[in-house]
Specification:
The protein is an all-beta fold. It contains one helix and 20 strands. The protein has a four-stranded antiparallel beta sheet, with no helix packed on it. A four-stranded mixed beta sheet has the order 4-12-11-6, with no helix packed on it. It has a four-stranded antiparallel beta sheet with strand order 13-15-18-17.
């Protein structure tokens, strides 16, 4: 409570993470009981300077395809201008990727990043992986900077299949009312030098689904239409049930692909009845003796 003519103090705390660097802007909304100023917006602008700047991003992201190695470079720089030294590196979980580092001895520009003496190049790499994976982890780094002796960089490794389904699963929402058949489309996409053709498509519930293989394209993309009969689906289950679609191709690496199919039954929402308030009709006003008779509305001149 601030008395009339008095003043008060508002304390706001902004939390930043260890590698946050650059301009930030925050908004504080203050609600008061002053009828002339119900709400007050306060904007806080600040510049956060991390002791160790990591460019171009404070995380390690490696994305590649099956059987294709990948490599990414990060530049580490001490903001106080002193030479940076890496004392230790630890990858969690071990073996997720290979990390190496090297000190910069002269000014150079690599992949759009300007490096100077005292900076450190951090190189993350993964070897060719024969199968698709998606994993995350952390890199614990120990430095000679007393302001930030240790810090953590999140890392992500994604190896995508050379032949993938888009979307990776099909979902149907079936209502008591609606079309007789519901249709969805799944596309198989090949990446790199992969060429393929679809040989056959089967489902584990042939009575429910109708499958149509669309005309083949250039060998790098083919589509499948799958239809669901509404009445047959409503007889199977009242809630959600799962099915699978098996696709056979001539691709040596991916001869068989399985796509989940999820069917969810949606009941029609009950509409609550609305009640209309009936008001009694008022009797027309009686004309008093000697009062002129007025014409009904809408019957005079100009109508």
């Amino acid at each position: 409570m601030i008395p009339a003519g008095g003043s008060g103090k508002l304390v706001a705390t902004v939390h930043t993470h260890a590698q946050e660097n650059g301009h930030i802007s925050k908004t504080i909304r203050v609600v008061t009981d002053d009828p002339g100023l119900k709400q007050l917006l306060l904007r806080l602008n600040a510049t956060v300077i991390a002791p160790i700047e990591v460019r171009p991003s404070s995380r390690i992201w490696l994305s590649t395809w099956e059987d294709v190695p990948a490599k990414v470079h990060l530049l580490l720089h001490r903001q106080d201008g002193k030479p940076l030294k890496i004392m230790a590196l630890q990858v969690e979980p071990p073996g997720l990727m290979k990390l190496t580092w090297s000190s910069v001895t002269s000014a150079e520009r690599v992949r759009g990043l300007r490096a100077g003496p005292g900076d450190v190049w951090l190189t993350a790499s993964v070897q060719a992986v024969p199968h698709a994976i998606s994993r995350s982890g952390k890199v614990h780094i120990t430095t000679n900077d007393p302001r930030q002796k240790t810090f953590i960089l999140p890392l992500f490794v994604q190896v995508r299949p050379t032949l993938e389904a888009v979307p990776p699963q099909l979902r149907f929402f079936v209502g008591d009312r609606g079309p007789q058949e519901y249709w969805r489309v799944v596309e198989l996409r090949a990446h790199g030098s992969t060429r393929f053709h679809i040989r056959s498509v089967q489902t584990d519930r042939p009575a429910l689904f109708k499958v149509v293989i669309m005309p083949p394209g250039l060998g790098t993309s083919e589509k499948i239409r799958i239809g669901l009969d509404r009445d047959a689906a409503l007889k199977v289950a009242a809630g959600t049930f799962r099915s699978t679609m098996t696709i056979k191709t001539d691709d040596a690496k991916h001869p068989v692909m399985t796509i989940p199919v999820i069917v969810t039954r949606q009941r029609a929402m009950r509409v609550r009845p609305t009640f209309r308030v009936l008001r009694p009709k008022t009797a027309p006003a009686q004309k008093k003796p000697g009062e002129p008779q007025l014409p009904p509305p809408g019957s005079g001149p100009g109508f």
